[in-house]
Amino acid sequence: MEKQNLIFDEVAQEVLEDLFEQFWILREKDPEKYQMIREREHALRDYFQEKFGYRFIVHRHFAKLEKIPVDPEPWMGIQMFIHPRDYALFACVLAFLEGKAVDEQFLLMEIVEDLLSIYPREEGIDWTNYEHRKSLVRVLKFSEEIGIVKAVDGDIEGFSQTENHEVLYEVPLISRYFMRSYPKDLFQFESMEEILKVEWMGEEANTGAMRRYRIYRKLFLSPVLYSEGVQDPDFQYLRNYRNRLREDIESHTPFQLELYKNTAMLTLPERKARFHLYPDNKGIMDVALQFSSIVREQQVEDEIPIQWDGSLLLTWLDFERWVGFCKEKYGIGWSKEHREASIQETTIKLFQLLEDWKLARRELDTGAVILLPALVRMIGRYPDDFNGNEEVGESEGE
Questions:
Q1: Rounded-to-integer distance, Cα 267 and Cα 282, Å
Q2: pLDDT tens column, 354-394
Q3: Which of 53, 91, 233, 294 is the most exposed place for a label (fewest CB within 10 A)?
Q4: Residue 328 lies in a domain
């Protein structure tokens, strides 16, 4: 067991992927995966500490890697939540659970009543409001999914239809370990930035270890890393140690490091179902790949200058016009949803996708669209023999 614990082999690589993709690995739900982690615990702990500076917790009931980002990004939220109210209710649910003993059971109506007093008074909560009930449904479904509450009898979905619906819940032991510990009370922090700064408290930002932690976290938690200028210390580190970084990443993970003049990213040579990938199989992704080919063409035709960092600066109207060109050229093979959508609708949906993947952003002051260099790393075109009879055309990557 001890010898195994020090080996970083294929098993260690597999569970490393799981630890990055999941909030935690519960022994009760996945005993085999949990045991694999226990058998490689020391090798994993050494790697996480040396490369990321991450806290790795192996408890008798779960294993958890605390994945703290350098900079928070929109996709890092709870994907099941769609409204700020969901997050507020979730915080209230956590507070409610703190007052319950482990294995104690409670009814949905009990938490519904308590939330009326716990929820921030200036906003208020109204259980006769369908949207407010749906928020709680999302919160409790996520709580069940993550394992901090257990439904003993009943299904929360019924609460969507009526405020008198009942469900019996139980408080599992692991609910006590959902929140990570902080060096001071959360009420003493005044902003999200202050909470993130705690990670680097007392450390010099540009020392070897801190810079290494920062770069590994950015590479593994973000779709792409861009240079912030010729004096960017992180990018200088990437260039100076690229061979060492590439060898380390490729020997411990399934990823490959790609480094360009102003762009760095991790890519997968083979698609893996457990990861959220670009491109995926959604119809808007076909539009994005084909739009990338339009960007290459139109940059030359419209004589749009390439910025120092490899980006392109467009007005929103020009961005929309290029989406129109894309639809004219490739729209015949788009899914019905995108064929029938207006150019304005497609433009908004496409931009949201590109922004999520750090392939585009907007200037706050002018509203201009900045197309970032990684956008044209992969493009899509129909095969020469494509006749438009298929609903969604095939894309050829470049």
A1: 19
A2: 999 999 999 988 999 999 999 998 888 888 777 665 544 34
A3: 233
A4: yes
